[in-house]
TrEMBL record:
One of its GO terms (molecular function) is hydrolase activity, hydrolyzing O-glycosyl compounds. The keyword Manganese does not apply. This is DUF4968 domain-containing protein. Residues 280-603 form the Glycoside hydrolase family 31 TIM barrel domain. The keyword Hydrolase applies. Signal peptide: none annotated. Residues 612-698 form the Glycosyl hydrolase family 31 C-terminal domain. PROSITE patterns: GLYCOSYL_HYDROL_F31_1. Keywords: Glycosidase, Hydrolase. It comes from the Bacteria. InterPro entries: DUF5110, Gal_mutarotase_sf_dom, GH, Glyco_hydro_31_AS, Glyco_hydro_31_C, Glyco_hydro_31_N_dom, Glyco_hydro_31_TIM, Glyco_hydro_b. It comes from Pedobacter cryotolerans. Residues 66-237 form the Glycoside hydrolase family 31 N-terminal domain. SUPFAM superfamilies: (Trans)glycosidases, Galactose mutarotase-like, Glycosyl hydrolase domain.
Length: 824
């Protein structure tokens, strides 16, 4: 009977049985009834005792063991060993577990054990082994088990399916999980993590390309995070199956998670980044506008597009070569017919300020005359199946084998293969198809074996980290090859911690208004999930945008950390001037704005790298105490000074915006508006509503056609008057080396404080870099009083004026410490 059911039907049956994994049901169906052992979930029972070893506490119920480890004052890790033996303590996401802990202690009462740090208390109830986490100051329980941790034997592969079920409070909302589709708030939904090539994904499609098993819960105005560091196929349910339960589980590996304390969402994200790392400072040119297409070829077409930017006077820093630059899609080769002299082309492009970025895929063509394949084969670097056959699958080059990037020796080898491309002058590298994607089959079968850093594993365990380890190999290889230059790398697939090696794009989206909305949410979600350097294919990868949609997408993209237009090969041309007027001029205006804001954007990246701040901050993060913000998903701040309200509706000429607490200047009109209000703001096609927080200092560069085109003679500082004190940052350095790791940079802090009659600006400077300019050129917006005198470090400045827009203009030395602007 069971044999008559095909896999699709099994899937359907599996999905209708609530609370059981698909695998479990498929297994039921595969086994003749006589073989069926009852499948039982086993739960922790009663705590029999506890043992302390340094910062680790081991609880036992006589059989299973649980480790509770104090990672920092605000982070606690929990692990479960069903029969007492913990798995190897290795993680691709978290290179170093232990952080600084000031103090912690264990207390025992009649009913429970309590481990407390200076901030959090983790309780384990004796009778039923329930684990909870509470805030020491408020006493509020942030997260607690609804049932004891449980597991179920996996008879086919060994190991266990592992489960955790926690309370879901009635007013609780959920955010994070990185690469997910649909609404930002995750409450009421169920998700799966299994890196998938999701061409033209839909609004609620799941899973997508990347796995970030990290979420943030918010209830009663306080946030906490859970990072379930498990690379197997994993699942999250936020009150979907059961309105008052949140659960997460995986098809194998260990039940291992970090509780990350808030109480602010920003604290949770920053602490998650202390575990998994931040993005390194990208080369500054990578923050410019990039132009991509599948594919620009031959060489004459590449030159034509590059020159098109210069003749149209539209700034651009990079042009991309998609797979067609290769010889029969063989990685690290060139199609000599299309590109007879890549070195000369790349050099000529550089001469007009245009960098070249190329794609590299994981599939290596099976071809004994192809050096990469030969080397990989000789070194035994390709993945094998359980019975020792090579893992073979079809991708662009035809029949391929795939390097096992979870083997450090393979990564070292593959990273070195970029040598020739680097010598040719290629500036950036784009790793695609690394879910890994295989035509037909989708991905590798489960039985493929991986080295997994010597800890070994099947593809079930390595699948979700394969892409991350590929781009790690790319990044590390480039870092060596490029000496002290910062590599620029992009990856499609990844796992938590991928931000240490690459930026990402959201994959194959579609040229529709729905996808514009979705891309806006996706970038914000990635940003608060530890992967801040993210962008969408501007214009939509497949399908045809009209001029309006493309322009609205350029406007959103101006404030995407990664700004790149890309399109599939079967679509019409898609450069910023392809749609004619008025679109070309508006696209130019916004791409120019990106370059004008470059010193601000670069400083925001520094704040992320150094301090772990996300780059895009959704309203839910800005004002988590305001529950309606948990559902407002179409506005965000870029850094904390610029509020971006993209226009996402076709034909819109205005839109409603919500301004958070404080006062905000309309970026275009300089009108000052009070926060905690909604406004209807004009948003004709040439405008996208943008606001600047009162009290900000926003540095600005002159428009350039590419990063570094002109030296900065005087740095323009836009100061937005406020009746209260606000701090701003400015980061400056060489822009493309690692000298910042040796303190060769400047981190400047400006504090701006007005009192209705006077305005005070102070500056502190840290670091060792010397900028090219001597003077700041001020542009003070919103001064509410008539100016009588200006002093810079107590020396009077007589040369000041108000321009036609009522902006106060004067200059100062770049090293000033304080400025006093007095009213009459
Ligand atoms: O099977 O290289 O997402 O950006 O242009 C498609 C061709 C392979 C998918 C990527 C897309 C890229 C395309 N690639």
């Amino acid at each position: 009977m069971a044999e008559d059911i095909n896999n699709d039907e099994k899937q359907i049956i599996a999905e209708t049985i609530v609370g059981e994994t698909t695998e479990e049901v498929v297994q039921h169906l595969n086994n003749p009834v006589t073989d069926l052992k009852p499948i039982v979930k086993q739960y922790l029972t009663e705590v029999k005792g506890v043992k302390k070893e340094g910062n680790k506490f081991y609880f036992s119920d006589g059989n299973a063991r649980v480790e509770v480890r104090v990672v920092s004052d605000e982070i606690i890790r929990v692990r479960l060993a069903p029969h007492g033996v913990f798995l190897d303590d290795f993680s691709y996401a978290v290179p170093v577990v232990d952080q600084r802990v000031t103090t912690f202690r264990l207390e025992e009462t009649e009913t429970h054990y309590a481990i407390s740090t200076s901030t959090v208390t983790c309780k384990v109830s004796k009778a039923d082994f329930l684990v909870s986490f509470a805030d020491n100051t408020t006493g509020m329980v942030m997260s607690e088990d609804a049932s004891p941790m449980h597991w179920e034997e996996n008879v086919e592969f060994g190991g266990y399916y592992v489960f955790a079920t926690k309370d879901c409070k009635s007013e609780e909302n959920f955010f994070g999980l990185g690469d997910k589709s649909g609404n930002m708030n995750l409450r009421g939904r169920k998700f799966q993590n299994w890196n998938t090539d999701a061409y033209s994904f839909g609004w609620d499609q799941d899973p997508l390309y990347r796995t970030i098993p990290f979420y943030i819960g918010i209830h009663e105005s306080a946030s906490y995070g859970i990072f379930f560091d498990n690379t197997f196929r994993s699942y999250f349910d936020f009150g979907r199956e059961n309105n008052d339960k949140t659960s997460f589980w995986a098809d194998g590996g260990e039940l291992q998670y970090y509780y990350i304390h808030g109480p602010h969402m920003m604290d949770v994200v920053k602490r998650y980044q202390t575990l998994t790392g931040t993005h390194k400072l990208p080369p500054k040119w990578a923050l410019g506008y990039h132009q991509c297409r599948w594919s620009y070829y031959p060489e004459s077409r590449v030159r034509e597009v590059a020159e098109g930017f210069r003749s149209n006077q539209i700034p651009c820093d990079a042009i991309y070569l998609d797979i067609d630059y290769m010889d029969g899609y063989r990685c690290f080769t060139w199609n000599k017919k299309y590109f007879p002299d890549p070195k000369k082309m790349i050099k000529d492009l550089l001469n007009i300020g245009m960098k070249t970025v190329v794609m590299i895929d994981p599939g290596i063509k099976v071809d004994d005359n192809y050096w990469v394949f030969k080397e990989g084969k000789e070194k035994n670097f390709f993945c094998r199946r359980s019975d020792d056959y090579f893992m073979e699958g079809h991708v662009w080059p035809g029949r391929c084998q795939f390097p096992d990037f979870t083997n450090p020796a393979v990564r070292e080898w593959f990273g070195g293969l970029y040598k020739e491309l680097v010598e040719l002058g290629v500036a950036g590298f784009w790793n695609d198809m690394n879910e890994p994607a295989v035509f037909g089959a989708g991905t590798f079968p489960n039985d493929v074996r991986h080295n997994y850093e010597g800890y070994r594993g099947s593809h079930r365990k390595a699948h979700n980290v394969y892409g991350m380890q590929m781009v790690r190999s790319t990044y590390d290889g480039l870092k060596k090859l490029m000496r002290n230059k910062r590599p620029f790398t992009i990856t499609r697939a990844g796992y938590s911690g991928m931000q240490r090696y690459a930026c990402v794009w959201t994959g194959d989206n579609v040229a529709t208004w729905e996808h514009l909305k979705l891309g806006n949410i996706q970038c914000q979600r990635m940003s608060i999930s530890g992967v801040p350097f993210c962008g969408t294919d501007i214009g939509g990868f497949s399908g045809e945008p009209d001029g309006e949609l493309f322009t609205r997408w350029i406007q959103l993209g101006t404030f995407s950390p990664f700004m790149r237009a890309h399109s599939a090969g079967d679509t019409s041309v898609r450069e910023p001037w392809s749609f004619g007027e008025p679109f070309t001029s508006i696209n130019r205006k916004f791409i120019e704005l990106r370059y004008r804001l470059m010193p601000y954007i670069y400083s925001v990246f520094w704040e992320h790298h150094r301090y772990g701040f996300p780059i895009l901050r959704p309203l839910a993060m800005l004002e988590q105490e305001n529950i309606s913000n948990h559902f407002r998903q179409d506005e965000f701040t870029f850094g904390d000074k610029i509020l971006v309200c993209p226009v996402l509706e076709q034909g819109a000429t205005s839109r409603t915006v919500y301004l958070p607490k404080g006062q905000w200047y309309n970026f275009w009109t300089h009108e000052l508006l009070n926060g905690e209000n909604e406004y209807n703001i004009e948003a004709k096609l040439e405008d996208m509503p943008l606001f600047v927080r009162a009290g900000s200092v926003v540095p600005e560069y002159p428009v350039m056609q590419y990063v570094g085109e002109k030296p900065i003679d005087e740095l323009w500082l836009n100061v937005y008057y406020a009746d209260y004190e606000v701090n701003s940052f400015l980061f400056e350095d060489h822009g493309d080396t690692f000298a910042y790791e040796q303190d060769i940079y400047l981190e400047k802090k400006f504090s701006v404080r007005g009192d209705g009659k006077n305005l005070f600006i102070e500056q502190t400077i840290e670091g060792l870099y010397t900028p090219t300019y001597e003077l700041y050129d001020y542009n003070v917006i919103g001064v509410p009083f008539k100016v009588s005198k200006i002093y810079v470090d107590d020396k009077e400045v007589t040369d000041f004026s108000f321009d036609d827009k009522k902006r106060l203009r004067f200059k100062s030395n770049k090293n000033f410490m304080n400025i006093k602007i007095f009213g009459v």
